[in-house]
Amino acid sequence: MTRSMFAAASLCVVLFAPLTAGQRGGSAAAGLSPATRQELMKSLSSGAAYLRAQQSAEGTFDANPGVSAVAAAALLRQPGVPKDMLMDAGGKRALDAIAKLAKPDGGIYDKIVPHYITAVSVMALVAGGRPQDKPLIEKGRAYLAEHIWDEGEGIKPNDKWYGGIGYGGSNPDRRADIISLEYALRAMKEAELPANDAAWEKAIKFLQRTQNNSETNDQGWASNDGGFVYYPGFTYHSDGGTKSYGSATYAGVISYAWANVKKEDARVQAVLKWVRDNYTVDENPGMGQKTVYYYYLVFAKALQAVGQPVIVDSKGRSHNWREDLAKKLISLQHPEGYWVNTDKAELQDNKVLVTAFTMQAMEAILQP
Amino acid sequence: MTTATLPIFEAAVLVVAAPLCGVALAVRRLRGVVPAAALFAAALTASALWTIAALGWSASGGRALVSHATVGTIGFALAALGAWFGSVWRDPLDAAAYSVGISLLAAFGIFAAGPLAADLPTPVLNAALIASPIVSAASAADVDLLRTDLLYRISPLAHGRFDYPAWFAPLLMYGTLLLISLAGTARALRKGQL
């Protein structure tokens, strides 16, 4: 596949996207106006071109296995572009580089943060869909499910870490957090871990203990705003205490969805109340601009997963979140095609990572 | 403390103990330097063997050897620094203060700098991490020190871009410091300062 053929294919996607959207009629994706949808596809195409230009000959991005896997997954899921084109345009190289990191125990990582890197690697391999990667995907999802804290590691069900997962590796403590868990559950879901696997129920216990919902949280600190903190009893909210904040909360919403908890469930309804009370696409509530692009990613994936096309906030105003977020993301794109955060925390000064997050958020916006 | 994290605690002890031992040896005109070095080497060997016995060779053999070699090189280098300073400064208390001060700065300065450290360019930050005996020992032991619970909560370092030292980097850095310090001590010996 030549570069010019790929560019021509991408152009077709941009030009014909509004027509395709119009034909779908009443689908949830029609929450986007045709004009915004066309802009979004153009923006995605430009972001993808930027990412492809950053790929090394070995297939990696930024010489970082985590960033490489997130970027590969974003590119391999680019909407409207045939998979074989995506594979030829660097996809195969990216997947080969990821597959080389596979360990005998099922983990897919280089050296550090094995759980997180395995999760994003599994997602990239799933996005690639190559038959030869299936064994790696199955071993990877089993690795993640096995590393959820449980009795096997001597953690009892009444322990606050039970059902959580952390960065992994030889850390001398046993911390788990909602963000690591969201990545792990997303990978397990995409890798089709059976719904009856015990790992899901264990994860739900940790989710409950991370939610500010005293009805279902047995921890003494829990209040009742419905949102989530980073891990039981600790938050990164700028006000401190145990206040819920944006990215953790949307990670919580989506984690409930990954763990097969229904939208009608009281725990999900409680967190959707927080969403209504704190709806915004201008910042990560409670954190300002810190990790705002991860916020956009989980915001889009969570609201898409729960099937909530319109959010009516606590003041009674209706928000078409797809339209709001799409416009926001388009406005934040740099002319060269990338996105980057002004706050560098959590590697969000890394253009490749932030561009990949944004593209995945856009892909969720486009899903019905 | 576990066997896996033992080298980190050994490095933390050496940050203070090694320069002080070096100064003490300089005050004694290097009498007892060979038994002291042998004792330190024997203790490290015992620690490495204990780690391997506890965790198994296949799981931890190479890691235990590299991490203890790193701790050993750091210990000898900091002791040599103390001996050099002890041979240069007239007052042993001055020598102890300067050598321990430098050692503490290398070990903990990057953590004490707080948000300033997070704003350093990545290569500078990486160099500071190599210079820290604590981080180098942890990295050699395959422990993700900056993402441990306490440091992850209080230090901005783990929330930005950094790379842990390659296994040979602290060996090179502290090996160089060892050679420089030995040369400085030998020069002082020749000048009759000891």
Kindly list the characteristics that best describe this protein.
heterodimer; A: mainly alpha; Glycosyltransferase; two-stranded antiparallel sheet; globular
List the topology elements.
The complex is a heterodimer of chains A (368) and B (194).
Chain A: H1 3-24, H2 34-53, H3 65-76, H4 83-99, H5 114-128, H6 134-146, H7 178-190, H8 198-210, H9 246-258, H10 266-277, H11 292-305, E1 310-312, E2 318-320, H12 321-332, H13 351-366
Helix pairs in contact in A: 1-2, 2-12, 2-13, 3-4, 3-5, 3-13, 4-5, 5-6, 5-7, 6-7, 7-9, 8-9, 9-10, 9-11, 11-13, 12-13
Chain B: H1 6-27, H2 33-55, H3 57-88, H4 92-112, H5 115-118, H6 122-131, H7 133-140, H8 149-154, H9 168-190
Helix pairs in contact in B: 1-3, 1-4, 1-7, 2-3, 3-4, 3-7, 3-9
First-to-last CA distance of chain B: 40 Å
Order of secondary-structure elements of chain A: HHHHHHHHHHHEEHH
Tally of individual domains of chain B: 1
Quote the average pLDDT of chain A. Answer: 91
Morphology call of chain B? globular
At the first level of CATH, what is the class of chain A? Mainly Alpha
Helices of chain B, by number, come to 9
User: Most extensive interface: pair and counts?
Assistant: A-B, 17 and 19 residues
Q: Rg of chain B from C-alpha positions?
A: 17 Å
Q: How much helical structure, as a percent, in the residues of chain B?
A: over 70%
**SS element count, helices of chain A:** 13
The Rg value of chain A, from CA coordinates, equals 20 Å
Q: How are the strands of the largest sheet of chain A arranged? A: 1-2
**Could you say which structural class the secondary elements and strand pairing of chain B correspond to?**
mainly alpha
How far is it from the N-terminal to the C-terminal residue of chain A, by CA? 30 Å
Work out the count of structural domains of chain A.
Answer: 1
Largest sheet of chain B: none
Mean pLDDT of chain B: 91
Structural class designation of chain A: mainly alpha
